[in-house]
Amino acid sequence: MRHFTFLLLVILSSVLIQAQTPSETIVFKERVYNFGTIKEEKGKVSHTFEFENKGKSAVTITDINSGCGCIGNVVSKKTVAPGAKGQVTVTFDPSYKDGFFSKEIVVMSNNNQQYNRIWVEGNIVPSEKPIENDYPYNYGDGLYLRLEVMAFGYVKGGTTKKMDLHFANNTDKEMTLSFVVEDNKGNLVYKNPGKIGAKAKGITNFSFSMPYLTNDDINFKVYPFVNGKKLAKPLQVRVMSETKFKKRTTSSSVANK
Question: Is 0.85 surpassed by the pTM of this model?
C-alpha cells in the first residue's frame, strides 16, 4: 500500500484545477469523513482516505487543492500499480474556527489531467480566548472596551452620526455599567447598558449631533461607572467639524490661485 500525506492548513491561496475529467480508475473507499465534534484546544485532527487503482495502468497523485484554500503541499508522490491501494492522509487544523465545517478536497492525478473529490467535515467547539483579543482596552474593575477613542470623524453642522461601543464584563459577577459625559454635553445621546452578566458582552450605541453654529472640532471625555464607581480611565470622544474643514480647504484653494 502506497502512502501519501497531505497537510490541511489555513493559508491564503487560490484554487487552480487543471483536471478536465473525473478519474474512473482511482476509487476511494469513502468520499466523506466526519470528524464529529472537535475541540479547538485539542489541536489538529487527521484522517486517512484509502483508494484503489481500478485501472489497467499505474497512476500517480500529482497535486491536491481545496476550494477554501486550506490545503498544503504534497509531501510525497508515488506511483500506484493497477489493483494496488493507496492512502491520502488529511490533517485539519481547527485553530481560530468554530461551528460546522465542510471542506472539499480535490485530489489530482496523472499530471493533473484527472481528479477525485473527497470531503472532511465536523463541528468545532472554540476554546476560550483571552478577553484582550477582542476587547483590548482595560478600563479597570473588570470592564473591557474595544475603543479607547470614539472618533466620529467629520460631522456637518445640524447632522448626526452614530457609533457602536462594544463592552465586556471580565469578572465572575454581574456588574452595572453606565457612562457619564464630562461637562454634561447634551450633543451625545446614548443608553446606559445597565446590568451585565458575569463574563457577558454587549453593545451600546452612541449618537453625536453637531450644532448648526459650531465650526470648531469638539473633544471631550466620557467616564465609565461600574457598580456606581467612577473609573479613572475615560473614553475619549473626538468630533471634527466638516464646515471648518471645507472653509480651510476653500481658503487654501483661493490662496493658491
Answer: no
